[in-house]
Each structure stands twice: as structure tokens, then as C-alpha cells.
Design a protein that fits this description.
By secondary structure, the chain is of the alpha/beta class. The chain folds into three domains: 37-101, OB fold (Dihydrolipoamide Acetyltransferase, E2P); 107-266, P-loop containing nucleotide triphosphate hydrolases (Rossmann fold), CATH 3.40.50; 280-342, no CATH class. The chain has eight helices and 15 strands. It has helices at residues 142-155, 172-176, 199-206, 221-228, 280-286, 288-293, 312-317, 326-342; strands spanning 37-45, 48-53, 62-67, 81-86, 96-101, 107-110, 120-124, 128-134, 158-164, 184-187, 189-190, 196-197, 210-214, 254-257, 263-266. A hairpin with a 2-residue loop joins strand 1 and strand 2 (48-53). Helix 1 (142-155) packs across helix 5 (280-286) and helix 1 packs across helix 8 (326-342). The radius of gyration is 27 Å and the shape is globular. Mean pLDDT is 84; it is low at 237-250.
Length: 347
């Protein structure tokens, strides 16, 4: 072997490694994936999506999938209808890819708190929000119900009040606050033998719908779900004797088909339902009972407690148009003040 002097080298002896980033022409055209199959997302777990195929001529089977790179960071939530490619056999160890998200009919979101404008997507393509509230143990919280009603209205979802534990307290007083809204409701109570009265009525309402269950921990969501979907086996928990609050039993949202048709999506019990993603001007529309009364206010009225010539106080005090009363007005104003702090034009 003849050793060459460095002076004998020239540019032809240097091997240039091609730039991988520029080695392939870039294009904005995305693959069509015409062979993709439709599926519904039923749960999400650490970057993997559990789906159920929706092909009418296919055997019902669950398929685990990952997000395709072209989707970026687009949120994919339970209830989403997606398109899958790759191995859709559902066998252990197989993984399909989600390449498209079908246009949603609704998209339910919340924030950690009212002053947090970052959105937390919950579920998609639901037409009913079942707001599950215990009449006692834990005590009912109208503020939570009001927040859920606002979120449902903004998302275009029909609300349903599901009142549990009527064996501990009668529902009439609580329902009186929401009577002016005409919100659909069902009341359940548990008998000594463990049977749940009102369950048949709830089944009839949910049949054929896609419903999300929302509520505080300990209000009985998992108990209802186990009764509605045989084999659901969602863990149930008790209420803390010291704090009066329920313990979290469900850690992730889960969509399940109902035996009578339709879907129900159970969500983890929440301590609060932040509305930081809601615009201040959308709020009054969600309080339909107050929106009617606000027509008597002067133009540009903020409807807050310090608003000059605001007509809401007098009209609510008089019970005008079947108004729900001071509690609803106070709830609206608490939310309105928080949302205006998020808006630099209103602050």
C-alpha cells in the first residue's frame, strides 16, 4: 500500500455526505390513504388510541393506533371518528395509524380554571351532556351545574340533568333553580335491594344518543354507567367524611356502546370545570333565563354588580319571567368577572 502525502489529495478524494433533509424534494401533497378504514376513538392512554372499527361489514373489533406524523399535535379524543391505515387486525402487539380526523359535530372543552385560557379537550361528536349531580352526599353544587350548562351551550350540546341519591333528599328544591331553563332531567334513587329507580327512564333518554357523563367525584357516575352498560366494571368510590368530596375512581375518559343503541362516554370526576376558553359575550347567551331579562338593560350594559342602571337585579328580585332567582344571577356575575379578566379589551 502506497502512502500518499496530504498534498496529493484534491476535492475528488473527499466524499461529501448528502444532506438528508434536502435529499428528497419537499411537497405539500399529502397521501390520500384511500384504503383507510373508519373507527371511533374509545379511550386514550399515553400516546396510544384505542379504537373500534365502524365498517358495517366488519367484525366488531378493537384496534390500537398511533397518530400519523402529518396530523401534528391535533387533539384526538374519545368520540372522534378517525381513519386508520396499517394493521387493523386488532391482534396483540399490532399498531395502526390514525391519518385523518373526521369533521366533528361537537367538541367539548374545559380549562383548569376560569383564568386559564389553555383548553383541555374532553370529548367529540356528542349530542348530549348528562350533568350528574348528587342531591346529597356530596352536597349539590349549583356552580358546577351552571358551568357545565355554559360549556354545553357553547359547544352546541343538549344538556341533561341527572340527579342521583334522591333517596337521601327530595329533588324539588334543587330543580326549582333550573325550571325556567326547561332543561331535561331525570331523577334516580337507590332502593334497599340495590335496584336503581329511574334507570329505565334514563335508558330511554340515552337510547340512540351519544352522551358524555360529567360530574364531581362521588356523585354516582360510575354506578350509573355500570348499570347502563353490563360489564363496564367502572370502579366506584365513597365520599370523604372530612371534606365531603368524592374520591377519583375513573382516571381517563372511556366511550362504550349502549345495549339499546347509542354511546356513552364516562369522564373522570372533576373538582372544577373551568371556562377560560369561553368568550365573555358568549356567557349571557348560555344563561337563557337571564338573557331574556337583560333585554331591559341599557345598551352596552356589562350586567355586573356595579353596572349603572342594570335591570337584572330588580327583575330577578321581582321574579320576572319565572327567573331562577338571585343564586343564578350571582353565579353569572362570578363567571362574567372571571372571563372579563382574561380579555385584555375588557379588563
Amino acid at each position: 500500500m502506497v502512502r500518499r502525502s496530504i498534498r496529493d489529495w484534491d476535492e475528488s478524494d473527499v466524499r461529501i455526505r448528502p444532506n438528508r433533509r434536502g435529499s428528497r424534494p419537499r411537497t405539500k401533497d399529502r397521501p390520500r390513504h384511500e384504503d383507510a378504514v373508519p373507527a371511533r376513538v374509545v379511550s386514550v392512554d399515553r400516546g396510544r388510541w384505542r379504537t373500534v372499527l365502524l365498517e358495517p361489514d366488519a367484525n366488531v373489533r378493537a384496534v390500537t393506533a398511533m397518530r400519523a406524523r402529518e396530523l401534528g399535535r391535533s387533539p384526538i379524543v374519545p368520540g372522534d371518528v378517525v381513519a386508520l391505515v396499517g394493521d387493523t387486525s386488532g391482534r396483540d402487539g399490532t399498531l395502526a395509524r390514525i391519518v385523518r380526523i373526521q369533521e366533528r359535530t361537537s367538541f367539548l372543552r374545559r380549562s383548569a380554571d376560569d383564568d386559564d385560557t389553555s383548553e383541555r379537550p374532553l370529548v367529540a361528536n356528542v349530542d348530549t351532556m348528562a350533568i350528574v349531580t348528587a342531591l346529597a352526599d356530596p352536597e349539590p353544587r349549583g356552580g358546577m351545574v351552571d358551568r357545565c350548562l355554559v360549556a354545553a351551550t357553547v359547544a352546541g350540546i343538549r344538556p341533561l340533568l341527572v340527579l342521583t341519591k334522591a333517596d337521601l333528599r327530595a329533588p324539588e328544591e334543587f330543580l326549582r333553580s333550573y325550571a325556567p331553563l326547561g332543561v331535561e332531567h331525570v331523577v334516580t334513587r337507590r332502593h334497599d335491594d340495590g335496584e336503581i329507580a329511574g334507570l329505565a327512564a334514563l335508558r330511554d333518554i340515552l337510547a340512540g344518543r351519544t352522551t358524555v357523563l360529567v360530574g364531581h367525584s362521588g356523585v354516582g357516575k360510575s354506578t350509573l354507567l355500570n348499570a347502563l352498560v353490563p360489564g363496564a366494571d367502572r370502579a366506584t368510590g365513597a365520599v370523604n367524611d372530612v371534606t365531603g368530596r368524592g374520591r377519583h375512581t375513573s382516571s381517563s375518559a372511556l366511550a362504550m356502546p349502549l345495549p339499546q343503541g347509542g354511546w356513552v362516554i364516562d369522564t373522570p370526576g372533576v373538582r372544577s370545570f373551568g371556562l377560560g376558553h369561553v368568550r365573555a359575550e358568549e356567557l349571557l347567551d348560555a344563561f337563557t333565563d337571564l338573557a331574556v331579562l337583560a333585554e331591559e338593560c341599557p345598551r352596552g350594559c356589562s350586567h355586573l354588580a356595579d353596572a349603572p342602571d342594570c335591570a337584572l337585579d330588580a327583575q330577578v328580585a321581582q321574579g320576572a319571567a319565572g327567573s331562577a332567582g338571585p343564586a343564578r344571577l350571582a353565579s353569572y356575575r362570578r363567571l362574567a368577572e372571571a372571563l372579563r379578566r382574561n380579555d385584555p379589551w375588557e379588563a
